[in-house]
Each structure stands twice: as C-alpha cells, then as structure tokens.
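Hi X.,

You mentioned you wanted examples for the new student's onboarding notes, showing what a folding record looks like when two proteins sit in one file. Here is a clean example. The first protein comes first, with its sequence line followed by its structure tokens.
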Amino acid sequence: MPLRRKHVFRIPPPAPTTIYVRPGYNRVLAEEFEALKRKRVELVKDKVEAHSQGDLRENFGFKAAKEAIRAVDRKMTALDRFVARNTFIEVDPATWLTKPTDTLQLGHVVTVEKQDVATKRRHRFTFLVTTHGETASDEASGIECLPHNSPLAAAMLGLTAGTPTKVTLPAGEAILTVGAIRNPTPAELERLLTAIKPPELDEDETV
C-alpha cells in the first residue's frame, strides 16, 4: 500500500496591505530588529559557555539558552515577514487638526452608535481613528484610540453622519450610526498619542 503524505493544515498568511503609521515607525522597526540581533549574539555566547560546562543532558543553562535563541529567532522571523508583507505610509498627526469632516477619515474624532442586530443592544463610543497600533484612551474627554485597520474602523471609514449602515463585524452583524465627526484638538492628540512601539506579533506570523 503506497504511503500518503500527511496533510498539515496551516492558516494562510495575511494578504499584503497598506498600513498608516506615524513618522518614525519604520525607524522603530529597524531598531527593534537590530536589538533582537544583538540579543541573539549574547545568547549564543551563553550557549557556548554552557556547552563547555559538561554533560548536556543535565545542563539546564545550555537548554535555557537554546530555547531563548529559538524565541528570538521566531520574533525576528515574524518581524521580517511583517515588514515584507506590508507597505507603510507615514502620516503626520498635525494634518488631522484641519481635515474636512464631510466623511469619516483617518485622524477624525467620531461619536458612533453601534446596535447589535442579533441582541438589539446599543453601545455608544467616541473614538479617534488613528494610525496602526494606537490603543490609548483619554479620561478627560472619554476618547479612545481606534486603529484605522481594526474591523470597526474599516467598517466606519467613509461613512457620513446620521446615516445608519448595516455592517458585518467579527462579533456579528451590526448597525452603525455616526453621530458627529470633528477634528481633534492639539491637547487631545498630546494626551492620546503615545510613544511609537514595535508591533506585537502573533505566533501565526512565524508559520
């Protein structure tokens, strides 16, 4: 009987996309990759030193260094694929202070009502639609950051105020009604926009 190859199910990689980021994000990505490379060099030194200490079967330092190197390699691979798969366009938040507000765009503050179709429950939010990776909230104004590439932001971008729109979100169908669109104030941007950080990548990125 001929042998058959085992079929392994793998989640397909995400499609290439355009991600809007703040100035300096590409530099942060490069610095993160260089930091991982330096960390790997030090771990390799630890591994070599531990290897010289005798029986590898009971050498916990060697095993720990080996696993740490693998973890760094996974992060480097994930970061490299993240950069290769996507195009990054830098956007200066200063341009958000005077944008037209006819339709919802990146950089606007929006008040939106979300009604779940299945449960009829209503939720009201105030968001700053912002660049990739922003998750801060402002207690003074009640505004939360909503990254432009999140499912909710993707469904809202381009909508006008006062027009209920039925959309499909990961949690199910919902009706979105934009109540108001305005530009942020300099003080709101100062409180909401945090230091740029490298992405938190899922393990799936390394598959």
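Then the second protein repeats the pattern, sequence line and then tokens:
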Amino acid sequence: MKKLLSGFVMIVSMFVANWVAAAADLEVNTPAIAALKASMQVRHGQLSTFYNSGAVGLTKDAFIAVKDATAVPLKDRGGLNSLVSAENADRANLYKEIATANGHPEWQADIQSTFASRWIDKAQAGWFYQSGGGWVKKWGLPQNGGQ
C-alpha cells in the first residue's frame, strides 16, 4: 500500500509541475527580470568560451557548473568560478522573480525545473549538460538559436 501511495504521489507531482509550467507566464517581464536577463546576457558572452571548451556545463537543476577545471589555465580558474557563481545567483533570482511576478512564489521550484529543460534544449551543439548520473555532450543543431 505504501508503494502504491508513493507512486500515486509521484504521478500527481509530475502533473502538478506540468500544470504550473503551463499556467505560469515564463516570459513575464518586470524591471527586476529585465535587469537579471541583461546581466546574464553580458555574462553569456564571457561564458561561451567555457561552454565551448567543455569546462562548464548545464546542470539538471537549471544552473551551471564547472565540469572540467583542467580545460582552463590555472590563472583563469578563479575568474571562471566567479562567473559561474554570479550566473547561478542570477538564475536563482530569475526563477524567484518569475514566480513572484506570476503571483505565485510557491511555483519557483516548478519554474526552475521548466528552465532546466529549456536551457538544455537551447544549448548549442558541443555543450555539455547533466543527464542521469553524468555529463552528456549535446549533438545536433541548437533549438531557437542557442541561449
């Protein structure tokens, strides 16, 4: 009975997450969201080299991580870590702001989950993302012109 109940809860959770993502306006724009997007866009130019080299990848929880620090010269690793930290802070704030702008701060986790898929879908061929227990290199053409 316990297994049946936990399976039911899991299925209901998936439907609720899909419904929240469908109900939320992920393109909502406020001054705070616009500032976060602008900051992320500028930083993206700096991160592109690291995505392309495989030093940085997209995580399954809608953030980025240093995947291979050895792909970056030792003198540049501190700067890379700072870029990754700043990007992840902006991403966390973006998910929070979108949920708040939708009038449902409790949707933040579901919005973040939706963005995890979006970032991977929009990633360029050759970039790495987390899947299962490891890193996977994306093949094929990017959807929607990359990030």
